[in-house]
Structure formats: structure tokens, C-alpha cells
Amino acid sequence: MLRKSDYENYDYRQFWKDSGREYEDRSERSALKKLFDGINPKGKVFADFGCGFGRLFGEYENFATVILIDYSMNNLKNARQNIFSYLKEKNSEHNLNHIFFIAADVGNLPLKSAILDVCLSVRLIHHLQEPGDFFGEVKNSVKPGGIFILEFANKRNMKNILKFLAGRLKVSPFNSEPLQIGQTILDYHPAYIKKLLKDRGFKVIKQISVSNFRLNILKKALRLNFLLFAENIYQRFFSFINTGPSIFLKTIPGAKEKNKFISTDNSHKPEKVTDRASISISEFFICPKCKGANLFMNDKITGSFFSQDGEINCPDCSSKFPVEGGIYDFRV
Predict the structure, then answer these.
(1) How far apart are the first and last CA of the chain?
(2) Cβ-contact 35, 246 below 8 angstroms
(3) pLDDT, tens digit, for every residue of 48-93?
(4) Dihedral of alpha carbons 211, 216, 217, 222, sign
(5) By the 8 A CB rule, do 284 and 248 touch?
(6) If DSSP codes are grouped into helix, strand and coil, which group holds residue 53?
(7) CA 239: distance to chain centroid?
(8) Is 60 within 8 Å of 47 (Cβ atoms)?
């Protein structure tokens, strides 16, 4: 049984800043650029499930509406601070109005049906005991022909294979059963994840093996630029081997759905968006308790859109959800 990761008492930014993980970070960004290639963000609604502190925001900032979802309020506060600083440095603070920060359980998403054009999940699934439940929630939230990009920790990675052949790993990396690492992480076999996706109505259209040279001995012995050069080659030509510690999948709902969000326009210029403070919260969100779609902000809401405090109300079941510092808390 997995123990829920407690990011309320841990600053996830330190995992990336203090532990020499630039290679992993840049490898993941390289994969995302390949997976986002050809997707025109203009006018599209995007969601990052398990957004952490907003590490990857720069890879999807140009979507017309960006929804960042995490269970941890601490992560979301850090994401808000990180993104504000990032946009301020670019003199793009006006783009804050197209961003929502949502505290929610990915197994019970407060999103309207068929509201998302593109969505992403990186370093989340290894914390889920039942990723199929999450895939079902995503399937309900993404539009027909939309895109779901996900990453999972790969049980069948080269390091595990070598350890198993040397007798240092008792559990075979080749069978489909998940492998628990410590108290909070599950490694999944690619076939296991792909079956769950297929059962929930997703078709995998692209696969990338990522962080393929994530060994301390290599990271210490070789220069970062050389590792990233080799990583890029591996991602492009050898991802079918399925031996990287992380696997990224690009999927669409429905085996026969035509992907209508691919475009040859790669300019990726941000769309001018209206002030979200003037738009009803019910445009995107529903009540996670009763699934009612008539949510509204109370009259006591204060502050600007990005820093507002107050309460969201559901008239259908009388539930109330706090808004603190621009973060909507839909956890139940």
C-alpha cells in the first residue's frame, strides 16, 4: 500500500535545485518539446495534473487557458510564486489572468466534461495506487480528439534489468505487476499502463523513452551537454526499446478519433485573453461532491484574480470551497 506523498511538509523545489538533477529536467523538457511539436495552443484549454511548483510552466505557457492542479497547497503556493516571478521577468504579468491554480484530487477532478484540449501529467502516476481511475477522470475531461500526454516511472528500465540479471533485484522487471519503491512510489511496466489507457478509451500515438543515461557514474564522468546530445539521439531513434527510467506517452481519446488540434502553425504566440475575474467559475469547473455545474463566487470575494480570497459556492449541494491567495481548494 502506498503512503501518500506529503508535500505540505517538504519544498519540492529542493528536489530539483539541490540534487544535481539538471540532466533529468532538461531531458524531460526535450521530450515535451517533441510531444508538443505541431500543437497550436491558440484558443486552447490546457491542464497540468500534478503540477508541483510549476517547474514545466514554460513549456505550455502559451495556451489560452492554463489550469494547474495539485493536491498540495504548499506546491501550489510555490507554483504561484514561481510563475509570477517567471512572467514578471518577461514583463508578461498580464498573462496571469489566463492561469487557474486548483487544489484537487486527480481521482475526483472538479472539471467539466470535455473541457480540455490538451493535458499533461509528469511525475504524478508513480504516486497513484490506481492510475486507471485517474485515466478515467481525464477521459471525461478531455475533448474528443484532444491530447493527453503522460509520464510514468518505468519498471522495465535498463538498471532494473541489469540488477535482476545480477541477482540484486528479486522482482522481475519483465512481468506486468507494479514494483513499489520505498513507501511512496510505484514503477509501472509499459504494457500495464498502455492496457489501462486502452481500457479507458485512449490510443497511444507516440512514445519517448526519457532520462536514458540517468546513472550517477555517467553524470559525474561526462559533461552535461554531451549527455543531453546522446539523450536527444536516443529519444528520437531508440525510444521503442522501452528501457529508460521514464516513459512519456502521447495519447488521444478513442482509437478512431481524428486529432483536430494539430496545426502546421508553430508560431505559438499567446492569445490575448479576457480577464478571468469577469468570467463565471462554472465555465471550467464543477462541484467535486455532487458534480453540479452551477458554481459561483460569493459576494465577499476580495483581491485581484491572481490573489483573490473568498469562497466558491455550489447551490446544488450547498458545499463551499475556499479560495486562498488565488488558489481554489476543491479537495473533499
Answers:
(1) 21
(2) no
(3) 999 999 999 999 999 999 999 999 999 999 999 999 999 999 988 7
(4) positive
(5) no
(6) coil
(7) 21
(8) no
Work out the percent of the chain whose per-residue pLDDT is above 90.
Answer: 81
Q: How many CB atoms lie within 10 A of CB 68?
A: 27
CA 112 to chain centre: 18
| CB-neighbour burial class of residue 55 (10 A; exposed 0-12, middle 13-18, buried 19+) | buried
Please give the model's pTM, rounded to 2 decimal places.
Answer: 0.92
Cell numbers 469547473 label which residue? 285
- In the predicted model, is pLDDT for residue 186 greater than 90? yes
Residues 6+ apart with CB under 8 A from 223: none
Where would I find the H helices in 129-284?
131-141, 158-165, 190-199, 216-221, 224-237
Return the C-alpha cell found at 205.
Answer: 500515438
Task: Give the residues across from 111 on adjacent strands.
Answer: 285
Which segments of 78-174 are extended strands (E)?
99-103, 116-121, 142-153
Q: Which helix (H) or strand (E) holds 312?
A: strand 310-313
Length of the chain, please?
A: 332
Locate 131 and state its grid cell. 492510475
Spell out the domains of the chain, with CATH numbers in brackets. 11-255 (3.40.50.150), 276-324 (no CATH)
